[in-house]
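Schema walk-through. Below, the input block comes first and the output block second. Nothing else is stored per chain. Lengths vary across the set, and this one has 359 residues.
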Amino acid sequence: MKICTIIGARPQFVKAAAVSAQIAQNPSLEEVIIHTGQHYDPDMSDVFFKELSIPKEKYNLSIGSGSHGDQTGKMLASIECALISERPDRILIYGDTNSTVAAALAAIKLHIPVAHVEAGMRSFNRRMPEEINRVVTDHISDMNFCSTEPAVQNLKNEGRGFTALLVGDVMYDCAMKFIPLAEKQCDPCAKYGLEKNNYILMTCHRPANTDNRDRLESIVKAVNDISKNIPVIYPAHPRTKSYLEKYNLKFSEKVKILPPMSYFEMIMAEKSAKLILTDSGGIQKEAFFYETPCVTMRDETEWTETIEMGWNVIVGADYNKIVEAVDSFAKCKPEYPKTKPYGDGNASGKIVRHLLKES
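--- output ---
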């Protein structure tokens, strides 16, 4: 059985690392990797392939950045050509990016079955491009691999329950698999002069925050004030940097602006932080995996379990809510729950077993 795995963005590289390793152990499965080039900077792409030992891609489509329509259209055309050449039995895609939805559309029009990892997640905010991508992809896919019970229920509510397969979260697989390797290879605290459990790790990249001057200004103001009491490190996404310059917004000298981190360096920084301030989806989960409280600068989250268990707080871009949530977590760390909402750490093995049933 030939599978074309189509990836293009940093979070997908991490997820694919776990599943591709399982695929490689099964001689009846052949994997061809297609890299759309959505993330093309070496710090956002090449380093992940090397660090996580992801098999070399057969195709790099080098699409790069652009508007949603332009980027998705170019991907759709290029992926279609690759799939016509490869003639796979199935494609395997991850998450909610433009690479994901373009791959799903290209495949289904060629009558190639689609398997979607991290399916069924919903923010219920149709203004988010990611929400549209994941809804469209779930309704195209005939195998929807779900991370959580709520994801399965979301698909049932949309009449797609028959496609839902509860396997757990591949990011939890990665968290368990790669942290021992990361501990041996990097120490961001030593590298950046930080004291373990005495700094805040921040990430901010979503268009809802970066493309809106008022929201970004509120975030910068809050972080500057927070940094008066505790150091803040910020591995800055390239597009966020450009908007900071465009709006003439500046972080204080106590906020350490860093280049994008490798996966190993990032998870070590997450594990060692006192708390995480982010608008990322994946980092909310990783914060939970590594028992680090999280403050999420979004108006909603797909990962409601982290909220219900007290390890995550939604604050939007509201200055007061950001400062208050950070202060609350800094004073009192919650008790870590005993439940495991994201599976047993073998989601990738379960995914491959489902694929093998078809081969």
